[in-house]
Amino acid sequence: MLLVDKLVIPKYTPLIVVLDLYKKYYYLFITAVMNNLNELVSANGFVNVEVDPHLDLFAAIEKLKKEKNAIVLAHYYQEPDIQDVADYIGDSLGLAQKAEQTDADMIVFAGVHFMAETAKILNPTKKVVLPDLKAGCSLADSAPAALFKKFKEKHPDHIVISYINCTAEIKALSDIICTSSNAEKIIESVPADQPIIFAPDKNLGAYLNKKTGRNMVLWNGACMVHEIFSLEKITKLKHRHPQAKLIAHPECEEAVLNVSDFIGSTTQLLKYSQTDSAKEYIVATETGILHQMQQSNPFKTFIPAPPNNSCACNDCPHMKLNTLEKLWLCMQYELPEITMDEELRLAAKKPIDRMLQISRAAGLVG
Ligand code: SF4
Questions:
Q1: Which CATH architecture has domain 231-304?
Q2: Pick from 310, 333, 336: which is nearest to 322 by CA?
Q3: For the domain with range 57-136+319-335, which CATH number is right: 3.40.50.2300, 3.40.50.10800, 1.10.490.10, 3.40.50.11690?
Q4: Ligand 1-lining residues (CB < 6 angstroms)
Q5: 4, 86, 295, 349: which sits with the fewest CB atoms below 10 Å from its CB?
Q6: pLDDT tens figures, 262-299
């Protein structure tokens, strides 16, 4: 609700007083508008105002990008319209690197909260906005910082490698961050006799233990999307499509990974689909990536791996909270904005810097 609705000035008021009144009125008006917008964000997760249905959102977003020197970074799991309007589309590693390097004034992060938080950690002087503040992550939520701190204290001689899908608080408790693209290299960079805790994804951790021959202690977290695939339904689907290859993200459960033809990060799955000679693929990861796969391989067929019930659970409900309208709204009003305590930011940045250093040395990022 606005605090100010009209300014009444008595006749014959000196001009200097009138100007001063207008200045104060303007300040009150702006404060009231900002309070109102912030209230909308707290209540809804975004500035929930009506958008003109005739507005060409694609053109309007392009206009705002220029006016505000903004860059739109989108994760592969975003809806196709958002991917089409983005300046850069990538997985967590690519997005973190872009966020670190950009000279745009505003980073519009079309992804989930921990990703926008990572952008702020890496580039604190930039304004970072997220289309919907409620776009969280079940995996990040599966590792509450207070519990994880106690877990870490039980293993005082271990170092902590955390998957980037975690909160800033968990990052601050970690020694090195990794993504599914660079996890193997990160683990191999640690001396073989150094014990490791891996958090928060137990499926990715178990897969990495197998790949690297390590015996990392695993935090018991998981992603609701990658845990939902049904081995039984995938097996039936493979019978109906005998030529199709099953490609899977390592956050999937071991039973699905065991029958996969290729396992890799989202970017690695995309690259595999571009270079491999098969014509059909069953894709066991979030369905958003199918848009890029189909665009770069128009003559191949991509079938989303079926979940173990009839819901569309391989659509991440958090990622899909973002819409093109909310993207435009967050650019227009520069809200919701990601802010962070500086002490926490610095502590969370250290293990990310370590990851980027190791990744660069391994030639994984430019
Ligand atoms: S797909 Fe899983 S890990 Fe990714 S944002 Fe959604 S819940 Fe989190």
A1: 3-Layer(aba) Sandwich (3.40)
A2: 336
A3: 3.40.50.10800
A4: 77, 112, 137-139, 165, 223-225, 286, 316, 318-319
A5: 295
A6: 999 999 999 999 999 999 999 999 999 999 999 999 99
